[in-house]
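User: Assemble these into one structure.

Assistant: Restating your components, then the assembled model:
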Amino acid sequence: MGLLSDPHCRRALSRLVVRLNTPLCVLSYVAGLGWFLAMALPPLAPRTYMSENAMGSTMVEEQFPHGERALAYGRDFAAQKKKAGGIPVAWLEKTMWGLGLEVYKQPFARTLPFPDESRERYMVKGTNIYGILRAPRAASTESLVLSVPCSEGTQNSQAVGLMLALAAYFRGQIYWAKDIIFLVNEHDLLGMEAWLEAYHDVNVTGKMQSSGALGRAGAIQAAVALELSSDVVTSFDVAVEGLNGQLPNLDLVNLFHAFCQKNGLLCTIQGKLQRSDWDTLPAYAHSLQTLLLMVLKQGSGRPQGDHGLFLRYHIEAITVRGINSFRQYKYDMTTVGKTLEGMFRKLNNLLERLHQSYFFYLLPSLSRFVSIGVYMPAFGFLILVLALDLWMQLNKCEAASEPRPGLLALVPPLVVCHAAGLALYLLPVLGQRVATQHFPVSEAEAVVLTVIAIYVAGMALPHSAHRALPGGGSDRGWMTLKLLALLYLAAQLSCAALLNFSLGFLLAATMVPAAAAVRPTGPRPVLAALLVLSTPAVTLLLGIFLHRELEERPAGLAEGWQLFLQALAEGLLQHHLYGALPFPFLALLTYPCWLLLWNVLCWK
Amino acid sequence: MAAALPAVALLLGCCGAPLASGVQDQAEQFFRSGHTNNWAVLVCTSRFWFNYRHVANTLSVYRSVKRLGIPDSHIVLMLADDMACNPRNPKPATVFSHKNMELNVYGDDVEVDYRSYEVTVENFLRVLTGRIPPSTPRSKRLLSDDRSNILIYMTGHGGNGFLKFQDSEEITNVELADAFEQMWQKRRYNELLFIIDTCQGASMYERFYSPNIMALASSQVGEDSLSHQPDLGIGVHLMDRYTFYVLEFLEEIHPASQTNMNDLFQVCPKSLCVSTPGHRTDLFQRDPQNVLITDFFGSVRKVEITTETISLDRDLTVFENEHRHRLEDEWLESISAEGDLEVLVDNRLDRSQQCALAAKRANCILDCIKWSMASWSKEVILPLHFVLVQPHYDIARFL
């Protein structure tokens, strides 16, 4: 008879699993982490290749000549920006009109939930300006976007200059089959979100006010966000992670890589160069670093550039940054312009949206990728630990002699934990006025400190509620609660990993050992320390330190703490402004789950 | 053959030269091929801008075939997409077959019969088999008969046993073989040359079973046909290798060329084409050595002027003489009965030129007769022939 269908065999198997539970759990956990670490190696990370047939190879002839003109436009723009103290609307309008584009401007206003350090006021007002280059012989059904953020100070003025020079050049060509939108957005992500919402006529984040009749150019097929702050560049960096860890189609990254190689530009990802040797240990360390950086950035759910907000509308987008570092060989504006021209010409050949290549991947380098089929087993092994532990819990529950507690005994802990989560989610922003009245802190600080206060307070909540009900306070009680908590955790982490693998994996890697090991008996201080270390807040803190370490500018404790507070504020802000999900996920789901485990620990 | 023989015999006879045995071979050569007209069906089955090269392939063959004499009325050109007017084309209204934009195969007199979404498997098979709704315009019909040599050229994306049409359907080699069999049963071709330039093209002719079909393909089963050269200005590949070299070969051919099919089989060896071109001649009755390129790529030239008489089958000569003598008496009556069937003799031309002119007119009238006649039985054709064509021969004879 079959191994699993024979009851005798099944019992033997389950007894084996229960007996060897701890070694199996440890083995599975190590296997999961080991698989993750092995993903940076060549067998698991094959070379990238262009999947879209319509884009083909890089066989176009780029002829962009206006490098100097781009610099001139950039200088003009910088001067005008300084004079206007913000985005020089009139000058941009006039220049774009002079180039032959259809110009539109979109004023927008947004109320922030709390004024953060960079903006320091509740209401943010700005204007987006964009010009549409109509395709000469095609109906305006599809379009491409080249966007440049108008940042404070002198940043990105060369980017605006290059965009205007490209617009002037593109206007003279007749081979465009899609309209091209040249967008200058103010206030970075805020302006971009306002523009996208107005363009698609939706209200995703609410409370965004914008006005004006906007010109449209059809469905946007792809977008490139450009950031350039110097006259010459030594390398080009690409940022792919978008809002909530969403990634653009891998073909767009491949396109960028192919054109950088064609024009001889140095291209980097996560700020790191490619290494040509693949078999050596330093090369492995290098690609592991790049992979970890991507995982950390994706897990945070923050868009790493203006492109991150396009992805939600199913528009593939990347951000391209020109970096000027201390390298000997510098590239001028013409080369940069040619690369962008080549990319846009290839995107022009697209017949459908980019869909042939992967949407879920990790990049240990620009020329190698790890697809979802390869990285999921790492997460699977971690969840297997939970599954094994659940199995053991079930068996212990059946073996225990006491009567089953009613499910009612579990309700108080559940309610209390979720109430704490709800408080964590709602109170900081709602209560900031009260906090600023009573304490000498600014709103942003008030919000963040409230978050931390509620977080810690949740741990100190009285957990004796369960004793009030019959059947509470027993061994079966905490086992059942742990069973529930493990199921809850497994479900959450699986859902998170499907949408944002890095978030799911990071939470799983930190929380799974503690969740599996926790029980009221046994060495309580050790288990308590383990559980505290696995809490999402500590994961965030450690993640920040690791991130700075990988970027090769390690942060000290004080700086790390500041960054931590900033990250909390950013998380809240991004949730309210753009609908970022990590904060509500952690506050409403993961934190209550962790509190349940804390409950289990403090059962007696 | 029955209608052609008397005409040719009379034509040769009317010039009244003595017969020589060396000319016998010439005559045999003359009757080597059994066709009287040529058709071409040129199909490009791919759409989308990156399949530019397939349209360029088809248009290049179209250009060659027109240059060698097949008129637009005898060409059915099917192009699945319009590259010349694609918004991505940096040179609008052109389709280039060679980089550096040397040769614009689109030109200004191209006649596309089936365009864009009309190129479907159903339409293609209807064209071949003639099962076409009565409302179809004449230019969209393949009006071939059992004396037609047809060139069928197909290009696009293919696989083992199929050719993809328009990214949404396929034609299989079985369907194609059956279509050709239908054509054979309906007497719609005399001989057929099938050329296909796709990946695994040889699989498309594996299933043919009708007689008189010769097939060429650009690659064997399991091989890909490769494209020839990209053009950086336009941004796409311009042609496929096999068709590129076939074109180079065809550029050397002129309407009177004697190059035969064996030379075409040698075009594009593996060193140039990377794939191995294949061909199939087992269904073909003649030896490829004796098949001229112009039998398929050019238009038939059935007129040869010689000053020597060639003696044909004795019975046939007697029969012709009888008819001739009989008609001599009735000639004037038949002419007057028809009124306007007068034959003009231009005194400014000399004898050989008159002969040539008469021969040309005879040829034209022969074609007309063939076009308009529903049946070709001897009883019907001969009298009509003698009424319409005979005067020309007699004039030439009397010169």
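The mean pLDDT of chain A is 89.
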